[in-house]
Design brief:
Length: 599
């Protein structure tokens, strides 16, 4: 199949430069938008061909493509999704404002749009970005997979595509691969082998919309490990997706649903999205974890440890966001003046000193921020029976929904803003381990409130059952068996097990052949298996830490991963900052390369 030309046909192709972007989803689109914004200032080459390589549609990519169930939603309000920069983004390139999803689609800003609508928005953004490129820059889409990149460090690269005998030649290559499939780890391989041997069903980590759920039979128990967004998709596809419906607060089964027994490390679903708008003064962030503190951590000769050196700053920053809002919006629930509290809070040298201050200044323990309790709400709790736990967890979810939709608890929204601020700094630190990313998603990237109300209805209907925290799965006696210390003595067996989470984006286990080739050739990787990139501009690092002059990478498979390729307006958008830095570095390289060739 030949490439699809998306812009003007160039003249004199033998003199033109070439940039190959592998991945045409939101990250690839964001990079093109930044190339268009920066090219008038930085690019004066002989003409540039941008080759987009992706089997999925440009803009939407795999995750947001139209060919998926319309029942699947985004987990953000339409007003909180943008692909355009604003003055809060710390970058060298120009701001090019544009509409949020709700402004573009003309929908209620508080709507949780379906993914097909978001895909349409992303396709439009892509078209606008291509149209904004200077005349001498042309974009081509190759609806294929990239298999490998070859070429010398100082010379042109070759990008080999599936089903094509000749490579694309590139002066620069940018990997914007998004979420990728991975081979099974040791535990998963054993479970899969056991399933094959005993005629069971084992669905490994996957993007749920791509999973074949047909083997999950009506009425039969299914064990589900994972309580995040992949689980929510699974819940939707196996209930409404099989003909069930909601009538008020009740779920009316179709009879085609399996019975889902779900658990996880925490044993509870991700926290509901906040259901009210911000009013009044925002917390002045960053305060205790900003650029200066991040610079100091990066400059330490012996490096830093996340738990020892970084987490205390995160705790203090999130606490500051919480109490700033509490004192500003709910002063009747505090015992001292904000100026006194702020001074003492800033001077507090450790967690114990802060806790003493908070106990004296905030009388109600419910108004105090306890990150450990938020992270592991079932720790130490034991229930006498499985049914008692069902009631208990329903109360927990009901309380979470009530709190997340009540402005009386607006410090929670302030903590959310603090999490975004902190993430923007932690991105600069590189590989800080996987725990933070999971904690952030659990608190800040949970499901829409309506999804949790559906979860409650499914629980009351008996279609969904809760297993508990630290859910353990054993393959024994020809079945899968699950248990949890939350309900001592209880276990449930099933002939099907679903791992409801995305695959880990590691170099060693990626099914993507291009990443595996990079790893084999010596690309650097972190302790968690992520591709190492230069903090400044996204250039791929080798195992000695040397940046490759002609290869860049952006996205979740790198140690520069961010909360997402798009973000809430006016929150700094670390992905936008990265896109801008990479686009500018690429344009300067190509400009200088053209100048050298002309000399």
């Amino acid at each position: 199949m030949s490439s699809h030309t998306l812009a003007r046909t160039p003249a004199a192709p033998d003199t033109r430069q070439s940039l190959v972007i592998v991945g045409a989803g939101p990250r690839g689109t964001g990079l093109i938008e930044r190339i268009a914004a920066n090219a008038p200032e930085l690019y004066a080459g002989p003409g540039l061909d941008i080759h987009l390589v992706d089997p999925h549609p440009p803009g939407a990519g795999r995750i947001w493509r139209a060919a998926q169930s319309p029942l699947l939603w985004m987990n953000s309000h339409a007003e909180d999704v943008t692909m355009f920069t604003d003055e809060t983004v710390s970058m060298d390139g120009p701001v090019r404002p544009g509409p949020t999803l709700h402004e573009w689609a003309g929908v209620d800003g508080r709507l949780f749009a379906d993914r097909q609508l978001q895909g349409a928005y992303l396709s439009w953004v892509h078209e606008q970005a291509v149209a904004a490129l200077p005349e001498e820059i042309t974009v081509h889409h190759h609806p294929r997979r990239a298999l490998r990149v070859s070429g010398p460090r100082e010379g042109r690269q070759q990008v080999w595509l599936e089903g094509r005998s000749r490579p694309l030649h590139a002066d620069l290559v940018v990997l914007a691969l998004g979420h990728l499939d991975a081979e099974l780890d040791g535990d998963q391989r054993e479970l899969a082998a056991y399933a094959r041997e005993h005629g069971l069903v084992h669905l490994p980590p996957d993007f749920t919309a791509d999973s074949d759920l047909s083997a999950l039979r009506p009425g039969e128990p299914v064990l589900v490990r994972g309580f995040g967004l992949a689980f929510v998709d699974l819940m939707v596809l196996l209930t409404e997706g099989r003909g069930g419906r909601y009538e008020g607060d009740a779920y009316v089964p179709s009879g085609r649903e399996p019975v889902l027994y779900v658990g996880s490390r925490r044993g509870v679903p991700y926290h509901s999205k906040i259901g009210y708008d911000w009013t009044g003064e925002r917390p002045p962030l960053p305060r205790f974890l900003g650029p200066a503190e991040t610079d100091e951590l990066l400059a330490r000769p012996g490096g830093f440890d996340f738990r020892r050196d970084v987490w205390p700053l995160v705790e203090k920053e999130l606490g500051f966001a919480h109490y700033h809002r509490l004192f500003a919006a709910h002063p009747e629930r505090t015992a001292i003046a904000w100026t006194d509290f702020e001074e003492k809070y800033a001077a507090a040298s450790g967690e114990a000193e802060r806790e003493t201050l908070v106990a004296s200044a905030v009388p109600d323990p419910a108004d105090r921020l306890d990150l450990a309790a938020l992270d592991r709400p079932l720790d130490g709790l034991r229930y006498a029976s499985h049914e008692e736990f069902q009631d208990g967890l329903r109360r927990y979810v009901e309380d979470d929904l009530s709190r997340s939709h009540d402005p009386a608890h607006s410090p929670d929204l302030s903590v959310f803003l603090g999490l975004l601020s902190v993430y923007g700094q932690l991105v600069r630190l590189g590989d800080i381990g996987s725990w933070w990313h999971g904690f952030f998603s659990y608190l800040a990237s949970g499901p829409p409130g309506p999804r949790l109300r559906q979860l409650l209805a499914l629980s009351r209907a008996g279609v969904l059952r809760f297993v508990g925290a630290d859910m353990a799965v054993h393959a024994e006696d020809g079945v899968f068996r699950a248990s949890s210390p939350t309900v001592p003595g209880f276990s449930v067996e099933a002939r099907a097990l679903v791992e409801a989470r995305l695959p880990e984006p590691t170099l060693r286990r990626a099914l993507d052949p291009l990443l595996r080739e990079l790893h084999a050739e010596g690309a650097g990787e972190t302790a968690d298996g992520l591709l190492r990139v230069d903090r400044a501009d996204g250039r791929v690092l080798d195992r000695a830490g040397r940046p490759h002059p002609r290869r860049f990478a952006l996205g979740p498979h790198t140690d520069g991963r961010t909360p997402g390729a798009f973000t809430r307006p006016r929150t700094g958008g670390p992905a936008f900052r990265q896109n801008d830095a990479t686009a500018r570095a690429a344009l300067v390289f190509l400009r200088d390369l053209g100048a050298d060739a002309a000399a």
